[in-house]
Amino acid sequence: MTTGQTHLFIPGPTNIPEDVRQAMNVPMQDMRAPDFGDLTKPLFEGLKRVFKTETGRVFMYPSSGTGAWEAAITNTLNPGDKVLMSRFGQFSHLWVDMAERLGLDVVLCECDWGTGVPLDEYARVLEADTRHEIKAVFATQNETATGVASDIPGIRAALDACGHPAMLFVDGVSSIASVDFRMDEWGVDLAVAGSQKGFMLPAGLSMLGVSEKALEASKTSTMRRCYFDFADMMKVNDDGFFPYTPPTQLFHGLKVSLARLEAEGLENVFARHYRLAEGVRRAVDAWDGCRLCAAEPKWHSDTVSAIVVPATVDARDVIRIGYETYRASFGTGLSKVMGKVFRIGHLGDLNEGTCLTAISIAEMALLDAGAKIELGSGVAAAQAWYRANAAPALRIAAE
């Protein structure tokens, strides 16, 4: 028999606030009833505020973020189109894989894992593309596998500097609703998000921000699509309906999640994620032999820290011990960094106590796995940062 709870410190699915969880505990309802739009139409407007778009629109699909990736590509591009992409972690790798399997001609920038979108290389490629053969530029704003954040405004600046008309696609699954994102201001044409990250919901709902430019491109795109077709969605979305059965319970949760985000204020949400992430980073700095996978501070992610363990330690042991002995889940290393890193997610519904618990359990698991760190070193470093940067308490009461 066990007591207490198993702690969840992975970078998604994230912890669900109690009021959001309770909001989803409702009977099934008729998704074709005339008043169904009373629930769904405000969600579209709330998502536009989170994406920070007034001119675009947001679609919701019953899928993980991967479904919205596919929707973005198949609705706006054509087979054989040339696109510019970069690969520096498991999720940017998977996006490249999808693009290639859907028949796109990928101009690929290979990057070291621990770095992000290479702005100088993007600028060079775009400047050389005088015939504008590149139809889209892809960027993963936050690479969850390595804890790396990329500069989206910098990509827009590179496009504008050479007057390139390519659309800008952004994977914001582990960034939107957690760190700064400005769809209209940054000229983003397709922006992908997922329910299980900053929106603090179960997995199963993806959100896709689409600009006017991308909507126009969808009218002439010849790529095959059915389930994810923008046209089918637009026929009924404005009235609050969907062309297939929607995940109604997730909509009820999203209503409360959006209310929480707005009550806290997006700028405060972003500041909280930075403050909490920095405490984790300072803890890692205090652990002898450990370091962040992110190669430089400019790459630091405020939603997940990927921690490189000493060469004598297998990160899989840290994760196993954390789970089996201390009932805490840490994120595993993926692909190239498997066994070399473990991850602490610090996004969604969390506070200083959450992060300090993660740090303290990670210290015990690291020691048990053979690392030579001092118990309490990371905790003390994080505590000092949190005390010096304490934010006023905010009570979030969703209606």
What's the shape?
A: globular
Order of helices and strands: EHHEHEHEHEEEHEEEHHHHEEHEEHH
Rg value: 21 Å
Assembly of the depicted chains: single chain
How would you sum up the major sheet?
A: 7 strands, mixed
Structural class assignment: alpha/beta
Give, in spatial order, the strands making up the sheet with the most strands.
Answer: 2-10-9-8-5-3-4
- According to DSSP, the number of beta strands is 14
Strand fraction: 15-25%
Reported by name, the CATH topology of the largest domain is Aspartate Aminotransferase, domain 2
Please identify, by name, the CATH architecture of the largest domain: 3-Layer(aba) Sandwich
Stretches where pLDDT is under 50 for at least 5 consecutive residues are: none
Give me the number of helical elements.
13
Distance between the ends: 37 Å
Q: On the 0-100 scale, what is the average pLDDT?
A: 96
Percent in helix: 25-40%
Assign the CATH class of the largest domain: Alpha Beta
Key terms:
single chain; 399 residues; alpha/beta; Aspartate Aminotransferase, domain 1; Aspartate Aminotransferase, domain 2; 2 domains; 7-stranded mixed β-sheet; 5-stranded mixed β-sheet; 13 helices; 14 strands
Overview of the molecule:
- With 399 residues, this protein is α/β, with parallel strands linked by helices.
- The protein has 2 domains: 7-14 and 265-388, Alpha-Beta Complex (Aspartate Aminotransferase, domain 1), CATH 3.90.1150; 18-262, Type I PLP-dependent aspartate aminotransferase-like (Major domain) (Aspartate Aminotransferase, domain 2).
- The protein is 39% helix and 16% strand.
- It is built from 13 helices and 14 strands.
- The chain has helices at 18-23, 37-51, 65-76, 90-101, 119-128, 152-161, 212-218, 230-237, 248-264, 266-286, 315-324, 352-368, 377-388; strands at 7-9, 57-61, 82-87, 105-110, 134-140, 142-143, 148-149, 167-171, 190-194, 206-210, 291-292, 304-308, 328-332, 341-345.
- The strands form 3 sheets. It has a 7-stranded mixed sheet with strand order 2-10-9-8-5-3-4, with helices on both faces. Strands 1-13-14-12-11 form a 5-stranded mixed sheet, with helices on both faces.
- Helix 4 links the parallel strand 3 (82-87) and strand 4.
- Helix 2 packs across helix 9, helix 10 runs antiparallel to helix 13 and helix 11 (315-324) packs across helix 12.
- The longest helix is centred in the C-terminal third of the chain and has 21 residues, at 266-286.
- It is globular.
